[in-house]
Task: structure prediction
Amino acid sequence: MSQFELDNAITDLSDLPMPNEGVAAMCEALVNGWKSGHIIMYGPKGSGKTTMAGLLPKAIAPDVNPWEVRLANPAQYDARTIAQLANTFMRTIGMNSKKKSFIIFDEFGGISKASVGTLNNALTDCRVNCMAIFITNNIDDVAPSIASRCYKADFTQVNYMNYVPYAESVLKKYGIHNVNRAALERVVKANCFDLRELMREIEDIVVKAQQSGAIPAPVQPQPLAIVAPPVAAAPIVASPPSAPSAHSASTIPPVVAAQAVTTSNQSLAATP
Result:
């Protein structure tokens, strides 16, 4: 994900453009009155399914904690393990808590019949407190017994005009207000099934506007200048040495002086 995408990432479901009116109505119903049930989101890769799945739990249960939302990728587990994971998660969190919990199955599909049975039992037992969100490119990859238990969000049908206001809002954020609406609609229509590609096109519009001078270019951060503290210069003329005091270190200690006198007297006495 580019820095431009990160800077413009949607963090609230209410700001997410909906692919069609059916998905919009379903999300509104879930947010305003979800009591039980699960959901399948299906459609082309890059159409916004994973983004919506990540935003939906917080919209349904604003007080949900991070550990109450689990993301499971079946590509990282064998089929039986993923079913057991769902069963354990839903039973320990969903049934033992009055709060709502969520488990998101990304790239779901193609699990064994035995695992389908285990997962179906978990979906039935915990349909009230726990919502399972299945994400798949093709709904035919999901077992009918699982699909029949779920609301369905169809991302294969897209009204590209729903994405035009979002594209305009991103451009206005960078100071582009007088955009050619017809040209922008053509860009959105060509990329409405791949939101990442749409963001790349919007970024390209912003970059070209900056390069042409139509809008200010981003200010590049300057490196910090490291200035060394000033060092005091040594004096050119050395100070004269101070005169020794009367009690300087050269004074002979009294004991040494007495020994010297005794030795001197002995020498004089021995002289003939």
About this structure: The domain at 20-157 is CATH 3.40.50.300 (Rossmann fold).
